[in-house]
Design a protein that fits this description.
This protein is an alpha+beta fold. It has one domain. It contains five helices and eight strands, in the order E-E-E-H-H-H-E-H-E-E-E-E-H. It has a six-stranded mixed beta sheet with strand order 3-7-6-5-8-4. Strands 1-2 form a two-stranded antiparallel sheet.
């Protein structure tokens, strides 16, 4: 077993966490389903079925931005954010985006021809896309975010 590495007393965790919810563990072009499944906690097959049923009347498919974008925004209430850029106009690679990503937010990140899921400085996927540039992304506060906010505004909210 590999020992955890530490820096200034804190455990160093990798940016990339291998995660494949495909029930047959297949490595397929299902990145949209994988990312949204991780963000919502819904099983892969259930999410695929729900998205497909929602998209059929719209004439769209889940792996196109015209399909997954509205689904994230209208059904799951994620907020779309524009492509982040440095002051000089250059793009952020995913590894750099992770350093500044808001904590306690579910974040679906679009990189070239791919979606991945980010949470608390790590991304969950079947391959390492840390060097890909971040395009648009969608975010939604996690339940732990709301718990922290409640306790900050009303200290009695978390006491029993």
């Amino acid at each position: 077993m590999k020992k955890a590495q530490h820096y200034n007393g804190e455990e160093i965790t990798p940016l990339w966490v291998y995660w494949n919810p495909n029930p047959l563990n297949k490595r397929t072009g299902d990145c949209v389903i994988r990312a949204i499944s991780k963000a919502t906690g819904k099983p892969w097959a259930d999410l695929l079925r729900e998205m497909t049923e929602w998209l059929i009347p719209r004439g769209e498919v889940f792996d196109e931005k015209a399909g997954f974008g509205p689904y994230l925004e209208e059904v799951l209430h994620f907020q779309k954010m524009r492509m982040p850029k440095h002051a000089d106009g250059t793009s952020y690679p995913l590894w750099e985006f992770l350093n500044g990503a808001q904590r306690n937010f579910h974040i679906i990140v679009q990189v070239r021809n791919h979606l991945t899921y980010v949470f608390n400085g790590q991304f969950y996927d079947i391959w390492d896309c840390t060097n890909k540039c971040v395009y648009n992304f969608w975010l939604k506060p996690s339940k732990s975010f709301y718990g922290e906010r409640r306790s900050q505004t009303n200290p009695q909210a978390t006491r029993s």
